[in-house]
Write a structure and sequence with these properties.
Structural class: mainly beta
Distance between the termini: 81 Å
Helix content: 10-25%
Largest sheet: 6 strands, antiparallel
Shape: globular
Number of strands: 10
Strand order of the largest sheet: 1-2-3-6-7-8
Radius of gyration: 22 Å
């Protein structure tokens, strides 16, 4: 009887180890659009951009995967967020301190960039009534191809880079 219990316990332990190693192996697989963060300082304001970074994977991004003239979540998965701990001027318009979801309406010659008050949401749940600020920016050819979507915070603002395009957004300290 003791041998049977010991055998059962040993078998259950072996099954537990086998199952947990399968779960660990699944976690090792890289995400298609891994989370990323860009941080920096503009004047006295600390800026943080949290986003999921999709890849080009041989696709044409602008005008095809991301259509012109339609709201795009500016990343993948959950909504991209922009956080500033102080009020800032974005393309000459004031944006109060806070965390905002960030969307864009890409165009061939001009983009509309949207800071939305509803920060914690899935990226496709955009509600225009919640917009805190809309500004315009001009896209330009990137110096090099960027396989993954990347955001940078520079002393002059933030830059979205993906495929062969970049969109600089001028940000200054609010007065």
């Amino acid at each position: 009887m003791k041998n049977l219990r010991f055998t059962n316990v040993l078998a259950m332990l072996f099954m537990g180890i086998l199952m947990s190693s399968t779960v660990w192996a699944q976690d090792a697989k890289p995400k298609a659009s891994p989370p990323a963060t860009a941080t920096g300082k503009i004047g006295d304001a600390n800026i943080t951009i949290n986003y999921s970074s999709p890849s080009v994977k041989g696709r044409t991004i602008w005008g095809e995967l991301v259509p012109y003239g339609e709201v795009w979540r500016a990343g993948a998965n959950e909504a991209t967020t922009v956080t500033t701990d102080r009020a800032v001027m974005v393309e000459g318009q004031e944006l109060p301190a806070g965390t905002y979801s960030f969307y864009a309406i890409p165009g061939e010659d001009e983009w509309t960039l949207i800071f939305n008050k509803t920060a914690k949401q899935w990226g496709t749940q955009y509600d225009e009534k919640q917009d805190a600020l809309r500004v315009k920016a001009k896209p330009r050819q990137a110096a090099s191809m960027s396989e993954r979507l990347v955001y940078d915070v520079t002393g002059e603002g933030m830059v979205l880079r993906w495929e062969n395009l970049e969109v600089p957004v001028k940000i200054q300290a609010a007065k």
